[in-house]
Amino acid sequence: MKVNYQEYQKSLSLTLDVSFISDTTKETAHAITRSGKANQGSLFLLALFICKDLEIKCPEIVTYSGHVPHKRRENRLCAQLFGWYKPATMHLHVYKFTAVQKKERAAKSVLNVFIHEMTHHIDNVKFGMPQSPHTKGFYRRMRQLENALK
Ligand SMILES: [Zn+2]
Question: CA distances (Å), 74 to each of 49, 67, 103, 126, 136, in order?
């Protein structure tokens, strides 16, 4: 996908103010990690709390299902897609099972993917950047959110 130059520049420079992330929100994230398993309800709740703290619209749909699709090249696992976010419908998805062994993914990994996709959602609704390119700025905002939930 071709990223518009202005959106790319904007994405590089923006930072996320995470000072309003509440203890309730942090506790919700901790509970997911502690339990060892995520579920659709707890991920949606966490999305709700983050969006309430940041005063932005919540994703319309949060789904947690299916197994990680993968492409094989010369019999080697070479690319994995762990989740996705669709800006037009504000649908956030995280895959539940591993690609090869079809086991439920660990809560910590699920949470990391969830935070990545939430950063796309924040770029979309808070900053008006639906394309939300993977710039250094994107990864900085993602780490800010990650650290705020610790
Ligand atoms: Zn991404």
Answer: 44, 21, 24, 42, 31
Q: Domain containing 122: what range?
A: 38-148
The CATH number of residue 125's host domain is 3.30.2010
> For residue 150, what are the contacts with CB-CB under 8 A and spacing of at least 6?
26
CA dist list (Å): 12 to 1, 18, 87, 135, 139: 17, 17, 19, 6, 9
100-148 residue pLDDT tens: 888 999 999 999 999 999 999 999 999 999 999 999 999 999 999 999 9
Note the pTM of the prediction, 2 decimals: 0.92
Residue 7 lies in a domain: no
Ligand 1 centroid, distance to 120 Cα (angstroms)? 7
| Closest listed residue to residue 127, CA positions, set 114, 143, 116, 138 | 138
According to DSSP, residue 131 is labeled T
Distance 97 CA to ligand 1 centre (A): 19
In this structure, the number of other CB atoms found within 10 A of the CB of residue 57 comes to: 12
CA 52–ligand 1 middle distance (angstroms): 22
